[in-house]
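Exam prep: given the inputs below (a chain plus NAP), describe the expected output before reading on.
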Amino acid sequence: MKIAIVGCGKLGSAIAKILTKEYEILAIRRDPSKIEFECEKSSDVSDAKKCDFIILTLKPQDFRKIIKKDEFKDKIVISFMAGVSVEELKKVSKKVVRAMTTLAVEYGESFVTFYCDGLSPDEEELIIKILKKLGEPIRAEEEIVDVSTAFASSIAFISELIEALIFAGVRQGIKRDIAEKLSILTFHSCLKLVEKYGCKEVVDKVATPAGATVEGLAKLMECKAAWCLQEAFCSAAKKFKKS
Ligand SMILES: NC(=O)c1ccc[n+]([C@@H]2O[C@H](COP(=O)([O-])OP(=O)(O)OC[C@H]3O[C@@H](n4cnc5c(N)ncnc54)[C@H](OP(=O)(O)O)[C@@H]3O)[C@@H](O)[C@H]2O)c1
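Solution:
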C-alpha cells in the first residue's frame, strides 16, 4: 500500500516518519532536498495520483491555490489542514477524511480526530488502521474535528507554560538545565496523576488547607491564569474557523 504525503513540511514529516515503518511513502514538497528521512520524494503534486491514499498537509492557502477540482477524484484523501471543510475537500475527491492531530504523531502518541465522507465501511476500516499508527483515532462530527485544531495549538500553549515554569525556577536561583529537567518531569508526573485521579482530586491531594500550594493557587486565580488559557484556546478556534 502506497501513501502520498502532499506538503511534507512539519506535520507531514512527523506523519511520514512513523508511517514509513509500515507503508511505502511518497513525500511531496516544493523542495524535496529538505526531506531528511528515507522514502521516495517528489516536488510534483500530481505524482500523488500514483498512490492508494493521499494525505494532505499543505497550508490551506497553498491547497486552495494549487489543488484543482477533481485532482484526486478516484483516491481517498485524508486532510489534516486546519479550517478546510469537507465541502471544500469534496471538490477534490468524492472520498474524503477530515482529520486533526498534533506533532506528537511522530511518536505515534497523538489524538487523531476524524470524520469520513463517501467511504465504504471497508475503506473506513483501512483508514482507521493507518490513523492508529499516529496515536488514538477518535471518530467525531466535523464540527468537533474543527474545534480539535485548537487542541493541536495547545501543544504550543503548554510549551509556553513549561517554559514559564523553567523561568520561575531560574528566578528562584536554580540553574536553567536543572530547572528545565524539573519542569518537564513535573509535567510528566502531573499527567500520570491526572490520568489516574482526575484534575480536581490531584489539586485536593496537593493543596493542604492553609498551605503553600493554596497560596499559589490563589495567585493563579487572582491573575486569571485559567481564564487566559481558555481565551487563547477560543481565539485559536475562532481563527481556524475563519481560515
Ligand atoms: N504544525 C502543526 O503542529 C500542525 C498541527 C495540526 C495541523 N497542521 C496543519 O498542517 C498543515 C501544514 O502545517 P505545517 O505546520 O506542517 O506547515 P509547513 O511546515 O509549512 O508545511 C507545508 C508544506 O507544504 C509544502 N508546499 C507548499 N506549496 C507546495 C507546492 N506547490 N507543492 C508541493 N508542496 C508544497 C511546503 O514545501 P516547501 O517547504 O518545500 O516549500 C511545506 O513543506 C496546515 O494546514 C496546518 O493547519 C499543522
